[in-house]
Fold each of these.
Amino acid sequence: MAFCEFFDSKIVKIHENLSHATHDETLNFSEPTTDHRLSVFDMVTEESLSMIICRSLIISCTLDPNPAKLLHVIMTTLLLIIVKI
Protein backbone atom coordinates (compact mmCIF):
# COMPACT_ATOMS: atom_id res chain seq x y z
CA MET A 1 0.00 0.00 0.00
CA ALA A 2 1.42 3.35 -1.00
CA PHE A 3 1.84 6.06 1.58
CA CYS A 4 -0.85 8.15 -0.06
CA GLU A 5 -3.38 5.32 0.15
CA PHE A 6 -2.42 4.61 3.78
CA PHE A 7 -2.77 8.26 4.71
CA ASP A 8 -6.10 8.57 2.90
CA SER A 9 -7.55 5.48 4.60
CA LYS A 10 -6.37 6.75 7.99
CA ILE A 11 -8.17 10.06 7.47
CA VAL A 12 -11.35 8.25 6.38
CA LYS A 13 -11.24 6.06 9.53
CA ILE A 14 -10.76 9.07 11.79
CA HIS A 15 -13.62 10.88 10.10
CA GLU A 16 -15.91 7.85 10.47
CA ASN A 17 -15.06 7.55 14.17
CA LEU A 18 -15.76 11.23 14.74
CA SER A 19 -19.11 11.08 12.99
CA HIS A 20 -20.20 8.18 15.28
CA ALA A 21 -19.07 9.88 18.47
CA THR A 22 -21.72 11.13 20.85
CA HIS A 23 -21.74 14.65 22.20
CA ASP A 24 -20.35 13.41 25.54
CA GLU A 25 -17.39 11.78 23.80
CA THR A 26 -16.31 14.91 21.95
CA LEU A 27 -14.15 17.57 23.52
CA ASN A 28 -15.84 20.74 24.64
CA PHE A 29 -13.63 23.78 24.78
CA SER A 30 -14.76 26.92 26.49
CA GLU A 31 -13.33 30.36 25.96
CA PRO A 32 -10.65 31.14 28.53
CA THR A 33 -11.66 33.88 30.89
CA THR A 34 -9.43 36.48 32.43
CA ASP A 35 -9.71 39.88 34.01
CA HIS A 36 -6.52 41.04 32.27
CA ARG A 37 -6.66 42.92 29.00
CA LEU A 38 -3.87 43.94 26.67
CA SER A 39 -4.74 47.50 25.87
CA VAL A 40 -1.44 49.35 26.00
CA PHE A 41 1.75 48.33 24.26
CA ASP A 42 5.19 49.85 24.49
CA MET A 43 6.77 50.75 21.18
CA VAL A 44 9.67 48.52 20.31
CA THR A 45 13.02 50.22 19.88
CA GLU A 46 15.81 49.33 17.48
CA GLU A 47 18.03 48.55 20.45
CA SER A 48 15.62 46.15 22.13
CA LEU A 49 14.78 44.36 18.89
CA SER A 50 18.46 44.12 17.99
CA MET A 51 19.19 42.59 21.38
CA ILE A 52 16.45 39.97 20.89
CA ILE A 53 17.70 39.05 17.42
CA CYS A 54 21.34 38.91 18.50
CA ARG A 55 20.50 36.63 21.42
CA SER A 56 18.53 34.24 19.22
CA LEU A 57 20.24 31.09 18.10
CA ILE A 58 21.15 30.79 14.45
CA ILE A 59 19.14 27.63 13.87
CA SER A 60 16.95 27.06 10.86
CA CYS A 61 15.66 24.41 8.55
CA THR A 62 14.94 24.29 4.84
CA LEU A 63 11.27 25.12 5.49
CA ASP A 64 12.00 28.46 7.20
CA PRO A 65 10.63 31.35 5.14
CA ASN A 66 13.29 33.61 6.64
CA PRO A 67 16.32 31.68 7.88
CA ALA A 68 17.86 33.03 11.08
CA LYS A 69 21.27 33.27 9.44
CA LEU A 70 19.85 35.66 6.82
CA LEU A 71 18.05 37.67 9.49
CA HIS A 72 21.34 38.25 11.31
CA VAL A 73 23.03 39.39 8.08
CA ILE A 74 20.37 41.93 7.09
CA MET A 75 19.34 42.87 10.61
CA THR A 76 20.47 46.50 10.54
CA THR A 77 18.45 47.18 7.38
CA LEU A 78 15.36 45.41 8.68
CA LEU A 79 15.42 47.04 12.12
CA LEU A 80 14.57 50.43 10.69
CA ILE A 81 11.59 48.97 8.85
CA ILE A 82 10.31 46.65 11.61
CA VAL A 83 10.20 49.26 14.36
CA LYS A 84 8.03 51.51 12.18
CA ILE A 85 5.36 48.83 11.65
Amino acid sequence: MLGTGDPHDELLDIESIKYLRALGSKHLETNHVIELTGPDTASGLVYLLAFVTGDMMREGDDPLYWLGVYDEQYRRVDGGWRISKQSLNFVWPQRMLNDGFLDQYTPSS
Protein backbone atom coordinates (compact mmCIF):
# COMPACT_ATOMS: atom_id res chain seq x y z
CA MET A 1 0.00 0.00 0.00
CA LEU A 2 1.41 3.40 -0.92
CA GLY A 3 1.49 6.35 1.44
CA THR A 4 1.67 4.50 4.76
CA GLY A 5 5.08 5.92 5.68
CA ASP A 6 6.49 2.42 6.18
CA PRO A 7 9.25 1.94 3.56
CA HIS A 8 8.37 -1.78 3.35
CA ASP A 9 4.85 -0.84 2.20
CA GLU A 10 6.07 1.44 -0.61
CA LEU A 11 5.69 -0.94 -3.56
CA LEU A 12 6.67 1.52 -6.27
CA ASP A 13 9.02 4.45 -6.15
CA ILE A 14 8.03 7.70 -7.83
CA GLU A 15 10.08 6.96 -10.99
CA SER A 16 8.29 3.61 -11.41
CA ILE A 17 4.93 5.33 -11.06
CA LYS A 18 5.89 7.90 -13.73
CA TYR A 19 6.98 5.07 -16.04
CA LEU A 20 3.74 3.10 -15.53
CA ARG A 21 1.60 6.19 -16.12
CA ALA A 22 3.41 6.81 -19.40
CA LEU A 23 2.42 3.36 -20.69
CA GLY A 24 -1.19 4.50 -21.08
CA SER A 25 -2.95 1.23 -20.34
CA LYS A 26 -2.68 -1.98 -18.35
CA HIS A 27 -3.91 -5.35 -19.57
CA LEU A 28 -4.64 -7.87 -16.82
CA GLU A 29 -5.29 -11.50 -17.75
CA THR A 30 -7.12 -13.62 -15.21
CA ASN A 31 -9.20 -16.78 -14.68
CA HIS A 32 -7.40 -19.14 -17.03
CA VAL A 33 -9.70 -22.07 -17.80
CA ILE A 34 -7.93 -24.84 -19.73
CA GLU A 35 -9.31 -28.15 -20.96
CA LEU A 36 -7.14 -30.94 -22.35
CA THR A 37 -8.48 -32.00 -25.75
CA GLY A 38 -5.82 -34.63 -26.46
CA PRO A 39 -2.43 -35.80 -25.21
CA ASP A 40 -0.69 -32.83 -26.86
CA THR A 41 -3.54 -30.34 -27.35
CA ALA A 42 -5.74 -28.16 -25.18
CA SER A 43 -8.15 -25.25 -25.44
CA GLY A 44 -8.71 -22.43 -23.02
CA LEU A 45 -10.33 -19.15 -22.13
CA VAL A 46 -8.54 -16.26 -20.46
CA TYR A 47 -10.38 -13.16 -19.25
CA LEU A 48 -8.98 -9.72 -20.04
CA LEU A 49 -9.46 -6.53 -18.04
CA ALA A 50 -7.98 -3.46 -19.75
CA PHE A 51 -7.54 -0.23 -17.81
CA VAL A 52 -6.45 3.18 -19.07
CA THR A 53 -3.91 5.16 -17.08
CA GLY A 54 -1.79 8.25 -17.35
CA ASP A 55 -2.41 10.53 -20.28
CA MET A 56 -5.20 8.29 -21.63
CA MET A 57 -7.24 8.86 -18.44
CA ARG A 58 -9.95 11.49 -18.82
CA GLU A 59 -11.19 13.56 -15.88
CA GLY A 60 -14.06 11.76 -14.13
CA ASP A 61 -13.94 8.82 -16.54
CA ASP A 62 -13.94 5.14 -15.57
CA PRO A 63 -10.45 3.62 -15.88
CA LEU A 64 -11.96 0.25 -16.93
CA TYR A 65 -11.72 0.37 -20.71
CA TRP A 66 -12.45 -3.15 -22.04
CA LEU A 67 -13.58 -6.54 -20.83
CA GLY A 68 -12.63 -9.36 -23.14
CA VAL A 69 -12.05 -13.07 -23.44
CA TYR A 70 -9.06 -14.66 -25.16
CA ASP A 71 -10.06 -17.89 -26.92
CA GLU A 72 -6.90 -20.00 -27.18
CA GLN A 73 -5.66 -23.32 -28.54
CA TYR A 74 -2.51 -24.90 -27.13
CA ARG A 75 -0.11 -27.53 -28.43
CA ARG A 76 2.66 -29.37 -26.62
CA VAL A 77 5.94 -28.87 -28.50
CA ASP A 78 9.25 -30.36 -27.33
CA GLY A 79 7.80 -31.04 -23.89
CA GLY A 80 6.45 -27.50 -23.34
CA TRP A 81 3.02 -25.98 -23.96
CA ARG A 82 2.69 -23.22 -26.56
CA ILE A 83 -0.23 -21.09 -27.75
CA SER A 84 -1.01 -22.31 -31.27
CA LYS A 85 -4.01 -20.06 -31.93
CA GLN A 86 -5.43 -17.04 -30.14
CA SER A 87 -8.36 -14.72 -30.77
CA LEU A 88 -9.73 -11.91 -28.64
CA ASN A 89 -13.46 -11.37 -28.12
CA PHE A 90 -14.58 -8.09 -26.56
CA VAL A 91 -17.67 -8.28 -24.36
CA TRP A 92 -17.85 -4.77 -22.83
CA PRO A 93 -18.49 -1.91 -23.37
CA GLN A 94 -18.97 -2.83 -27.00
CA ARG A 95 -19.57 -6.46 -27.95
CA MET A 96 -17.29 -7.68 -30.73
CA LEU A 97 -17.25 -11.47 -30.96
CA ASN A 98 -15.63 -13.77 -33.46
CA ASP A 99 -17.95 -15.97 -35.52
CA GLY A 100 -19.04 -19.03 -33.54
CA PHE A 101 -17.57 -17.89 -30.21
CA LEU A 102 -20.86 -17.97 -28.31
CA ASP A 103 -22.01 -21.21 -29.97
CA GLN A 104 -18.76 -22.88 -28.95
CA TYR A 105 -19.22 -22.10 -25.23
CA THR A 106 -23.03 -22.09 -24.85
CA PRO A 107 -24.31 -25.30 -23.23
CA SER A 108 -26.72 -27.22 -25.47
CA SER A 109 -30.13 -28.07 -24.02
